[in-house]
């Protein structure tokens, strides 16, 4: 497996420049993973399949779904891609490389765990700040246009928020100067996590049912249902920041009431 992976990587670095792989390659991977993982939830919602696992009974109209997709394409090409192009020299200066040998899995997993820790901390405070009155009204309310989220709404946001919270995702890699392979894997994991958190379904196989402190769709859906002043549940992937600062009390109280009623 390792030999096959290194052979494939050798092909990439032989046929494409470092800039092409880090910028265009990263963009293609992001778009592919994001839309391939997010589009199925639109189909599920329209067809009514697996509705017993849907968290909210309400559905989004095809027009609302279409608006989300068109805006996402605009933001991805107008904001995400230029940011990748501009940030390339910064990552190179911080030590990012694409040459062989590939890093060991021990190094890859260690760095990704570090990225999750950093991202959770920075995202929590950035997200919480976005829920202050002025920033919510002028910036973050765009993301909350969808009170019933579906996978693709995870990246539906004001361009300023894309830049603001995107910093939380790239700060970890910027600090460590990772191999491009590690950066790609981190991007894939992060995209899959945020799509799942916004999918609107609480499946028995959802990661939150197996991984301690993992937020997931059920935890984050509560955040979208409530008014901005009362929402809480600001965490990104793991919920410990909300627990430490008590911003998940409303959610936990509601869960306690539901259990008592049952």
UniProtKB/TrEMBL annotation:
Keyword check for Transmembrane helix: yes
Location within or outside the cell: Membrane
Main location: membrane
Ranges where the Fatty acid hydroxylase domain occurs: 113-247
UniProt keyword annotation of Ligase present: no
Keywords (A to Z) from UniProt: Membrane, Transmembrane, Transmembrane helix
GO cellular component, one term: endoplasmic reticulum membrane
One MF term in the entry's GO annotations: C-4 methylsterol oxidase activity
Highest taxon in the source lineage: Eukaryota
Transmembrane segment boundaries: 19-44, 72-91, 103-125, 162-187
A biological process term (GO) from this entry: sterol biosynthetic process
Family assignment from sequence similarity: Belongs to the sterol desaturase family.
Protein name as annotated: Fatty acid hydroxylase domain-containing protein
Organism: Cucumis sativus (Cucumber)
């Amino acid at each position: 497996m390792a030999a096959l992976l290194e052979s494939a990587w050798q092909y990439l670095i032989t046929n494409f420049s470092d800039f092409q792989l880090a910028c265009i390659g990263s963009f293609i991977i992001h778009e592919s993973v994001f839309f391939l993982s997010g589009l199925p939830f639109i189909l599920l919602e329209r067809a009514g399949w697996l509705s017993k696992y849907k968290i909210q009974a309400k559905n989004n109209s095809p027009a609302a779904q279409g608006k989300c997709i068109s805006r996402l394409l605009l933001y991805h090409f107008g904001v995400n891609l230029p940011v990748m192009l501009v940030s390339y020299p910064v990552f190179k200066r911080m030590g990012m490389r694409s040459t062989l040998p590939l890093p060991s899995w021990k190094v890859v997993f260690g760095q990704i765990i570090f990225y999750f820790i950093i991202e959770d901390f920075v995202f929590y405070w950035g997200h919480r700040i976005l829920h202050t009155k002025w920033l919510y009204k002028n910036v973050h309310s765009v993301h909350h246009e969808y009170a019933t989220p579906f996978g693709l709404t995870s990246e539906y946001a004001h361009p300023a928020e894309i830049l603001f919270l995107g910093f939380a995702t790239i700060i970890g890699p910027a600090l460590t100067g990772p191999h491009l392979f590690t950066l790609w894997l981190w991007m894939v994991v992060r995209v899959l996590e945020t799509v799942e958190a916004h999918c609107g379904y609480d499946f028995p196989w959802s990661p939150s049912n197996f991984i301690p402190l993992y937020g997931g769709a059920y935890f984050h859906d509560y955040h979208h249902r409530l008014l901005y002043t009362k929402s809480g549940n600001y965490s990104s992937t793991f919920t410990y920041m909300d627990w430490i600062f008590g911003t998940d009390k409303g959610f936990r109280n509601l869960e306690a009431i539901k259990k008592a009623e049952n």
